[in-house]
Write a structure and sequence with these properties.
Layout lengths: L6 H13 L6 H9 L7 E7 L7 E8 L2 E9 H5 L2 E6 L2 E4 H17 L3 E10 L12 E9 L7 H10 L6 E2 L4 H10 L7 E3 H5 L3 H7 L5 E3 L3 H13 L5 E3 L6 H6 L2 E5 L4 H6 L2 E3 L5 H36 L5 H5 L6
Helix pairs in contact: 1-2, 4-6, 5-12, 8-9
């Protein structure tokens, strides 16, 4: 709880990331790439996959003489199943250090870091279920940084000049989201939480959605609600996402956008996959799309005008022998 780097915490996070068999995700890829931990003496026994209700992922690992559950996930959800905390002074009841944990979490979040929790406990069984995620020991924080690209604020400003507004939808907490929003040029952003959306009717959300800059602590199904509410407010919605929890939103949006390297389910759900890691592609795409649309309309108007002239000219010509007999030449 001191904020010092811990090889023990990272080793557990590494075991969890190496042995999980769900969909690939950037967090586990980052953990595996960050350091090479020798796990040759370990063996995976079982796994409880991540889901969006528990917001945790657990693996059971034979580690030396012990079988240990190693869990990582959203900090609050990991703490919910912990009764003990590991500190430099030994193992203590979680209540004794909970205030310190919350303060450090707030400090990390205020700096824009993504913070996960890591916990573990020894068990006697070779199999585990969700019910075994209890009475665990909180080992520490897993702190990740994912800074926005340096020029993203310029791109967002240029899109705004084209009449394209930007909204952020994230499952992160408001403190992290506010920090990121400020860095990308959405300072003084108006926020709405997933808890707030859960209490709103669809009609109320339609009225509110256009006034919100950042949606925080959002569940996957709520992303779809936000998009549908925007569409009902006569807004054309483009949605960009790269994770499993973005698939439904990508399907629902008028234009679903993903990026090369995203999980397969996201790229398959998207209408457009960006091959460059640059939001400027969107701005250039909007400009070129509008030019193409304008040129297409010009062609349609020209062709329609020509067809109308031909139709008017042909309407004055005799069509049958009887009509021909009625035509009188006039000098």
């Amino acid at each position: 709880m001191t904020g010092a780097e811990s090889s023990t915490v990272f080793r557990d996070a590494y075991l969890n990331a190496v042995y999980e068999t769900g969909f690939d995700n950037p967090i586990d890829e980052s953990i595996r790439a960050h350091g090479d931990v020798d796990v040759s003496a370990c063996q995976k026994l079982d796994e409880v996959p991540y889901d969006f209700v528990r917001k945790r992922l657990s693996v059971l690992v034979a580690d030396g003489d012990d079988a240990r559950i190693v869990t990582k996930g959203a900090l609050a959800n990991v703490l919910d199943v912990c009764t003990i905390a590991a500190t430099t002074d030994g193992r203590v009841p979680i209540e004794a250090v909970r205030d310190g944990i919350d303060r450090r979490f707030a400090a990390y979040s205020d700096e824009g870091y993504r913070v996960l929790g890591v916990a573990s406990r020894t068990v006697d069984s070779p199999r585990i279920t969700k019910d075994d995620e209890e009475s665990m020991t909180f080992d520490g924080f897993l702190v990740l940084e994912d800074p926005p690209k340096a020029d993203v604020d310029r791109t967002i400003g240029e899109l705004a000049g084209l009449g394209v507004s930007t909204q952020v939808i994230t499952d992160d907490n408001w403190v992290v989201a506010a920090h990121v929003a400020d860095r990308v040029g959405l300072g003084h952003a108006t926020a709405l939480t997933g808890g707030g959306i859960a209490t709103m009717s669809d009609e109320a959300l339609v009225v509110t959605v256009t006034d919100v800059d950042v949606f925080v602590e959002i569940e996957p199904n709520q992303k779809e609600r936000v998009i549908r509410a925007s569409q009902k407010s006569n807004t054309v919605v483009g949605y960009m996402g790269d994770g499993i929890n973005d698939a439904l939103a990508l399907h629902t949006a008028d234009v679903g956008l993903s990026v090369e390297g995203a999980v397969d389910v996201a790229t398959e759900a998207a209408d457009v996959v960006l091959l460059e890691n640059d939001l400027g592609v969107l701005e250039r795409g909007v400009r070129l799309g509008r030019q193409t649309s304008a040129n297409t309309l010009k062609y349609v108007f020209m062709a329609t005008s020509l067809l109308c002239r031909i139709a008017r000219r042909e309407s004055n010509q005799p069509k049958t022998a009887e009509e021909c007999s009625r035509v009188r030449p006039i000098s």
